[in-house]
Amino acid sequence: MSAVEFCQVSYQLNQKRLISDLSFTIFPGETIVLLGRSGCGKTTTLRLINHLLVPTAGEVRVNGRSTLDWNSIQLRRQIGYVIQEVGLFPHFTVVQNIAVVPSLQKWEPDRIQSRVIELLELVGLEPQRFKHRYPHQLSGGQRQRVGVARALAADPPILLMDEPFGALDPITRVELQREFARLQQQLGKTIVFVTHDIQEAFKLGTRIGLMQAGQLVELGTPQEFARSTHPEAQAFMSVTEWNS
């Protein structure tokens, strides 16, 4: 069974088509990286999964059900969401930020506290040191780790990540990429990861989907992507070769 399925999906805004006839399947437990230049439709595709956007044509299915058939709130509670700006509540402590969704789901306080401690340890933040801090007291990398913990708090089966490490310095970015790869190996979530960085795509993706002008022009494993003859794929590969 698929975790997410796009069936001839298009999305149009103000008479401009941003996504055209997307059809592909995301399988449980895989990390699919949506790669492409700015404005190619990566983030739009991501937002169609958790019903932040509604397809103009076609259908997006999550766990076999059209997003139109889901209650939006229930759907989003099945899906963790991590963005580049993190989006932590500035007046909440680390504990309160991570506990948002479990609190909405009426978890018992003891269970919430236990889950917060577990997640802080999982993302490499020492609980006693960090749990009472506010976002402005954290570094960019630490805030991003809290953002990942918050997305995982209610143990959603699907995780959407929209350029989560893009605003970080190169060293912190590499550290978090390694941490993310370790987490994925441990947790086995279904992850859709948006980036414009080909090296990040190769490090993290089970498969890489290359987007260009709102269309999916290539989809395959990193090894298959490296052999692609598509001009856009070759353009990205030439950047990798130049950097190496």
How would you sum up this structure, described in words?
The chain has 244 residues and is α/β, with parallel strands linked by helices. It has a domain at 87-156. Helix content is 40%, strand content 25%. A 6-stranded mixed beta sheet has the order 6-7-8-3-9-10, sandwiched between helices. The protein has a 4-stranded antiparallel beta sheet with strand order 2-1-4-5, with helices on one face. Helix 5 crosses helix 7 (140-152). It is globular and about 50 Å long. The termini are far apart.
Please name the defining characteristics of this protein.
10 strands, alpha/beta, 244 residues
Instruction: Flag low-confidence runs.
Output: none
Given the structure, what is the number of helices?
A: 11
The average pLDDT value, as a whole number, equals: 91
In percent terms, what proportion of residues is strand?
Answer: 25-35%
What is the oligomeric state here? single chain
Placed side by side, the strands forming the largest sheet appear as 6-7-8-3-9-10
| E-strand count | 10
Distance between the termini: 39 Å
The succession of helices and strands, N to C, reads: EEEHEEHEHHHHHEHEHEEHH
Radius of gyration: 18 Å
- Describe the biggest sheet? 6 strands, mixed
What's the topology here?
Layout: E1 4-13, E2 16-26, E3 31-35, H1 42-49, E4 57-62, E5 65-66, H2 72-76, E6 79-83, H3 94-98, H4 100-104, H5 109-122, H6 127-130, H7 140-152, E7 158-162, H8 170-187, E8 190-195, H9 198-204, E9 207-212, E10 215-220, H10 222-226, H11 231-243
Parallel strand pairs: 3-8, 3-9, 6-7, 7-8
Antiparallel strand pairs: 1-2, 1-4, 4-5, 9-10
Helix pairs in contact: 5-7
